[in-house]
Specification:
The protein is an alpha/beta fold and 214 residues long. It has helices spanning 7-15, 34-38, 43-50, 66-73, 85-93, 129-139, 184-190; strands spanning 20-23, 29-31, 57-60, 78-82, 97-100, 113-118, 140-150, 157-166, 169-170, 174-179, 193-201, 204-211. The protein has a 7-stranded mixed beta sheet with strand order 5-4-3-6-7-12-11, with helices on both faces. The protein is globular, with a radius of gyration of 16 Å.
């Protein structure tokens, strides 16, 4: 009997360029867009994630590092974290700083990051966006901002069990979530944050949040 294809190994394989799809818990299938994440940032990336950051920035779930690399090129101190060794390797190959690290583990510079990015749907990491945002708030300076990509209005808040299908091989299920523009204010509030702005570019959406003062 072969060992289960764990999600981290599936991400590692996906980031090497293997054909990969996301399979949700009702059988829906969509492409896992490794090519986009491995390319250089486009104008939408720049408008939503890169241009707003003018101080220390951490990219959570950085993947192959297109955002971290672009920030480093602007001489912004930036660091990516990811659970995928391959993602971290590719980010470092861009000349950017990246660590193999889970967001719930100790992160260097906790409490001193001015911006935290949750791009490409990474607000869904772990399936509990309230817990994730509360954790991200811990790494920020007072008044620091989270810039999170969200789904379109009407998506609500959806909890899923997803799998990755890499070259026809399925991973074991893992928890994920989707948060829409219509649900982000409530999710943020439950995490001790508030939405200060939203932005749309090229059909993608972000919400910028700050920690609520006690």
């Amino acid at each position: 009997m072969s060992l289960a294809f764990d999600p981290v190994s599936a991400y590692d394989a996906a980031f090497t360029g293997k054909i990969t799809h996301v399979v949700d818990d009702v059988g829906g299938i969509e492409p896992f867009d490794v090519a986009m994440w491995s390319s250089e940032p486009d104008w939408v990336d720049r408008e939503l994630f890169i241009d707003p950051c003018d101080a220390e920035t951490i990219d959570i779930g950085c993947g192959p590092g297109r955002l971290v690399g672009a920030l480093a090129a602007r001489r912004i101190f930036a660091m990516g974290i990811d659970v995928s060794k391959e993602a971290v390797r590719q980010t470092r190959d861009r000349g950017a700083l990246a660590l193999l690290r889970d967001v719930y583990a100790t992160i260097p510079g906790e409490g001193r990051w001015s911006f935290a990015l949750l791009a490409d749907g990474n607000l869904g990491i772990g399936g509990d966006p309230v817990r994730l945002l509360a954790r991200v708030g811990d790494v920020l300076v007072p008044g620091g901002q989270v810039i999170a990509e969200v789904a379109d209005r009407g998506a609500g808040l959806v909890h899923e069990r997803r799998r990755l299908r890499v070259d026809g091989r399925l991973s074991v299920p893992f928890d994920w979530a989707v948060v829409g523009l219509d649900a982000i204010a409530g999710v943020a509030a439950a995490a001790g944050m508030r939405v200060v702005s939203t932005q749309t570019a090229g059909g993608r959406h972000t919400a910028t949040m700050v920690r609520t003062l006690p």
